[in-house]
Each structure stands twice: as structure tokens, then as C-alpha cells.
Amino acid sequence: MSPTPAPPAGPAQLRADCERCFGLCCVVPAFAASADFAIDKPAGQPCPHLRRDHRCGIHAELRQRGFPGCTVFDCFGAGQQVAQVTFGGRDWRDAPETLPAMAQAFAVLRPLHELLWFLTEAVALRLPADLRAELEHARAETAALTHADPTHLGAVDVVAHRDRVNPLLSRASDASRSPAGADHRGAHLLGADLRRVDLRRANLRGALLIGADLRGADLSLADVTGADLRGADVRGADLRRTLFLHQTQLDAARGDTHTGLPETRTRPAHWTALPLTPVRQPTRSPATARRRRR
Question: Are 246 and 285 contacting, i.e. CB atoms less than 8 angstroms apart?
Fold first, then answer.
């Protein structure tokens, strides 16, 4: 059957619920031995640490055992959607012939659920009524796609759908950040010292902030959609009003008890409890920061 109208997913549905999944994130994706993963694993093959009950056998030691990449992966609730809705609770271990179709469904639903998360965040912003209505329509349309059966899911053009939705999300960002701050979309800021750079209302969509020093920085109303925060130092940073900040970005960063977080985000367990002496807020640009650092 074709996609039917469905209510937009709520916050709980857009968070991974491993109790209702069949370990699909440990089976479907491939990963290569690297700083993020200790071993190679082909796509569609269960990780050797996946137990029969679909739980990770080294979950409490993933970082210590060389699997930090696992700790920052989020299916946005697609795993339980595939397991409980698309396949009605049928376990691939009991029916191995279903695994290829499950893998295909997961590959479609994961990016759709990610879009739903961003749309849900956008709808909650202070926006003009007409823009909010467009976002709500896109959210309902995306939610309907997630309730398709396996056959119709396989026909969904995720890239085309995402290309239609992303301009709406950009408009929501622009409206929320007005008057806009600095534009650093896709900027390469690896290891940059940004402690005194004004990042309020900045556009950091897709920016590479790996290992960047953001201690004490104010990222109020900065858009961090898709920004890579692996190893970024956000101790003492103010992230309470940062736009489109996902939990996995926090899990990949380094923070402390003085890092300001939105109420709906969780302070990662590996963050240090040591406070940071605040850094005076700034006016330099990232380019200036890099020049002075050299």
C-alpha cells in the first residue's frame, strides 16, 4: 500500500529506543578500522560484540575498547520504527530472510527520521506564521513517508525529499538568527582557537570544528546543523540556545559541568566535572584567530 497520513513523530519517537529494536545499527552500517572503530565490519553483517538479545556486549566500555564512533551514532528512532512498525515486531534472527529488506528500510528511514527531528526543532522556533505552516506541512509529509510498507519505502527518493526540505530549514534558521551573525557555513575550523570569536547568531552549518577550542564561547542562536564537533572543547561554553544542536554532537565533544545545555539535552557521562574559568567574550573572526595563532 502507499504511504498514508500519519501524525508527526514526537520527541520520544525520534530518540533511539534500543529495547524495541533488533540491533539494526550494529548490523546494517559498515565501518572501517579507524580512530572511531577498532575493527572492520561489512554492511549487513552483525558486529561481533552484538549479543543474541540485540544488546552490545561492550556497551559500557565502547570508548575504552576503541569504538567511540558507536557512542555518537543515533538512528533518530528509525531502528524501532523498522522493527516494530515496518516489520511488525518480526525479528531478523528468527527470520533471516527479512534482513536485506530491513536493511533497506533502515537506510531510508534513518535519514527521514533525522529530517523529522530537524523539522520538529524548527517548528518550535519563533517564526512567521506562513513559514511555520510550510514546516508543519513538510513534517507531516515526511512522517507519512515513514509509515510506508517495505516495498514503497524502497521507492522513496530520500535525496530528492531532503533537497526539498533543506531550504525550509535554512529559512527557519535565517529567521531565527536575524539579525544574522557571521557566516561560517562549511568552514574548515579544525583545531581553531575560537574562544574570543563572536559566534552568536553565526551560521555554522556543516562547519568542521574537529578539535576546535570553544571554551567559554557563546553560541546563542548559532546554527550548528551538521557541524562536526568531534573532540571540540566546549567547556564553559553557552549552548543553551544553540539552534539544531543534537545530542550526538555533544557526545562527540568535550565539555564540563559549566557547559550550558538546552533542557532537552543530556550532559554526556564522559565529560569532566572540572569547571572552567570563563573566557572574556570576543570580537575576532575565525580567520583572525588562525593568523594570530600562527
Answer: no
CA distances from 90 to 52, 87, 93, 213 (A): 15, 6, 9, 46
pTM of the model: 0.86
Could you give the CA distance from residue 165 to residue 242 in angstroms, rounded to a whole number? Answer: 21
Phi-psi region of 236 (alpha: psi -120 to 50; beta: other; left: phi over 0): left
For 87-126, what is each residue's pLDDT tens digit? 999 999 999 999 999 999 999 999 999 999 999 999 999 9
Q: How far apart are CA 275 and CA 235, in angstroms?
A: 8
Residues whose CB is less than 8 angstroms from the CB of residue 264 and which lie 6 or more positions away in sequence, other chains included: 11
> Of 177, 85, 88, 64, whose CA–CA distance to 126 is shortest?
177
Burial class (CB in 10 A: 0-12, 13-18, 19+), 175: middle
Determine the 3-state secondary structure of 199 from DSSP.
coil
